[in-house]
User: Fold this.
Amino acid sequence: MKQGRKNIRYVRTIVDDGQSKVLEVLHSIGETPTNTQLNDFQKWRIKDEWKRYKEERMNHYIIEQNKLNAISLSFPNGKKGEMYKQTVCLDTSKFQEIWFENLDQTGLHESIDTVNGTVTLSGIPFEAKDFEFKICIKLKGWDAGDPIIERKFSIAFNPDPRDLWKNIPVPANIEFPKRDEDSDYVLVPEFEGLPQKDIVVASKRGRSHAQEGKPRDDDFRVSFNPQNGWYILAVADGAGSAKYSREGSRVACETVEAYCKGRLAEQGDAFEEAVKAYANEKTQETLKPVIEKIHEILFKAATEAYKAISKKVEDCQGSAVLKDFSTTLLLAVCRKFSFGWFIASFGVGDGAIAIYDKNSDGIKLLNEPDGGEYAGQTRFLTMDSIFRDKTRIKMSIVPDFTALMLMTDGISDPFFETDANLAKKEKWDALWTDLSSSVEFSDDNEQSQYQLLNWLDFWSPGNHDDRTLAILY
Assistant:
C-alpha cells in the first residue's frame, strides 16, 4: 500500500508540472513525442499506477481476510432457555470497526472489548434451532468502497427437554375419569386453647402420563375434625400398569379418611387417654393400649379400603380383577396435646411419611417403603398378604415439628434417589429449602395449595411420574 501511494504522488507531480517536464524526461532518452502521444502516455501511466495501487490494496485485504479465517475461533452449541456465554480473542489493533450480523435472531448479544481484544457472546437462546451469523470488520484506513472482511459461524441451540414432552388430554369417555391436578388447603383454628397447624396438599399428573394421554393415578384426602382435634392425611399412588389404578387410589383414600374420622369420633376419648398415659410414663404396659387403638383405627381402615376396592371389582361384573385397582397407601392420624404431638401411621408401597424438624439433627420416618426385586417394583394395598404384616403401623410423640409430610414416589424418587437416603436429614433439608422457595408456609395462607401445585412442575431428569405431596405445617 505504501509503494502504491508513492507511485500516485510521483504521477501527480508529473501532471502538475505540465507536459514540459514529461517532454524533458523523454528528450533525455532520445524520444520526441507528438502532443497526442504525450497525452496518451500520461493517461496510460496514471491508469497503470492506479491499477497497481488497487491491486496492492486488495492484496492487503486478502491477507487480512486469510489471517481472520486462520484464527482458531469457535462458538460451541448451547441449550434453549439456558444462559450462554462464550469469549474469543481477536487482535483488534488493526480494526477500525467490528460488529456482528444476524445475531438478533439467536437471542444473544455481543460485548466487544477492543482494549483487551476480546469478543463475548452471551444471553439466553429463545429458540431451539441452527443459526448462522458472522463477524464483520473494517480495517483501519477503511474508506467507502473498500472491502469488509468477515467470517461466518454456525451455532445450534438444543431444545429444552421439557419442550419435548407432550400434554395430551385424557379421553373424555374413559371409565373412572379424574382431574389432571387437584389441591386442597385446610385452615385450622386453635383447639382447646392450643395453636394448631394447617394442611396443604397438591397432586399433579406426571409428564409420562401426559405424554401418552393417560390420567393421573395418584389421589389424596386430608381433613381436620374441629370436634375432637384429630387430623387425617392420606395419599395413594395407583400402579401405572393397572388399568383402573386411578380408581383404586381414590377409593383407598376416600375409605380410610371416612373410616378414621368415624372411629376417632367414636373412640377418640379412649384413644386420647391411652396416648396421655403413655406420654406420662413410657412403659410396655402403657404402650399396649395405644398400639391396640392404632390397629383398631388405622390398620382396620386399610382393611376397609381393601374391601371397598374388592366391591368395585364385583361391580365391574367380570370385566376387571382386583389387580386392576392396585394402589399404594400412606395414612397418618395426629393430634396435638399439651405435651406435644402424637402421630400414628400406616403404610404400604413406596413413597414416604416423615416428621421433619429443621432444627433437629435427625428425621423420623413413619413408614418403610416396600421395595421390589427390581427397580420400580413395590407392594400394593390390593395384595391381601400385607394384612398379615402387623409392623406396618408406626407411631411417634414429639414436642413439635416443622412439617409432617406424606408423599408418593413421584416426589421421593427425585429428591432421595434411594430408600437409604430417606434417613438422611440433609436430604430433607434440601427438600424443605426447595419447597420453601416456592411455597409460603405461613398461617392462613390459602394460596399455598396453588403455590404447591406450581412447585410440582419441578424438573428432574428421568423422574416424570405423578406427584402428590401432603404437608401438615
In short: The mean pLDDT is 92. The longest strand covers residues 130-139.
